[in-house]
């Protein structure tokens, strides 16, 4: 008998689409150029999803910056272990909160298109939508 665990992981980058339509990725955790042209980033950071079981294929939630800044809130509870102790020391600045929310990180990292803000894309949809070959 086999048991499978599903770990949710997320990585946050900035996607900038210039007035001319060219897209760049700003990723602080890569050895790729900074900023990196979108097509170069996708080619260098991701392999094809073809050999990955459909259930585990990557998805991308793209949120407009103004919406992100208006709605995102985190009380840092995700940075604590099961006993409530910090895994690492928290940043020295106050928690990010909005008038309406103290914690909604899960809505931002959810890949359920019915939850949260923005739009959810598969890898191929993401590459087509923001890449230079996006007819």
Q: Your description of this structure?
A:
The strands form 2 sheets. Strands 1-2-3 form a 3-stranded antiparallel β-sheet. β1 and β2 (23-26) form a beta hairpin. The protein has 135 residues and is α+β, with helices and mostly antiparallel strands. It starts with 13 loop residues before the first strand and ends in a 5-residue tail after the last helix. 21% of the residues lie in helices and 13% in strands. It contains 4 helices and 5 strands, in the order βββαβααβα. It has 2 domains: 1-57, no CATH class; 64-117, no CATH class. Keywords: Hydrolase. This is Protein N-terminal glutamine amidohydrolase. One of its GO terms (molecular function) is protein-N-terminal asparagine amidohydrolase activity. Belongs to the NTAQ1 family.
The total beta strand count reads: 5
Alpha-carbon distance between the two ends: 47 Å
- The number of distinct structural domains comes to 2
The average pLDDT score comes to 90
Main β sheet profile: 3 strands, antiparallel
User: What is the number of helical segments per DSSP (H or I, 4+ residues)?
Assistant: 4
Share of helix, binned: 10-25%
Q: Report the structural category.
A: alpha+beta
Low-pLDDT stretches are none
Strand order of the largest sheet: 1-2-3
Compressed to H and E, one letter per element, the order equals: EEEHEHHEH
Indicate the radius of gyration in whole angstroms. Answer: 17 Å
Give the overall shape, derived from the CA principal axes: globular
Tell me the strand percentage band.
5-15%
């Amino acid at each position: 008998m086999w048991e499978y665990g599903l770990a949710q992981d997320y990585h946050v980058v900035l996607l900038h689409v210039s007035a001319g339509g060219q897209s760049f990725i700003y990723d602080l955790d890569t050895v790729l150029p900074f900023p990196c042209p979108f097509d170069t980033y996708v080619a260098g950071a991701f392999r094809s999803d073809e050999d990955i079981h459909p259930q585990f294929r990557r998805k991308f939630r793209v949120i407009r910056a103004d919406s992100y800044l208006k709605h995102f809130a985190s009380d840092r509870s995700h940075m604590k272990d099961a006993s409530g102790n910090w895994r690492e020391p928290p940043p020295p600045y106050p928690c990010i909160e909005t008038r309406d929310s103290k914690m909604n990180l899960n809505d931002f990292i959810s890949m359920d298109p019915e939850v949260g803000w923005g739009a959810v894309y598969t890898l191929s949809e993401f590459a087509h939508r923001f890449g230079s070959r996006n007819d």
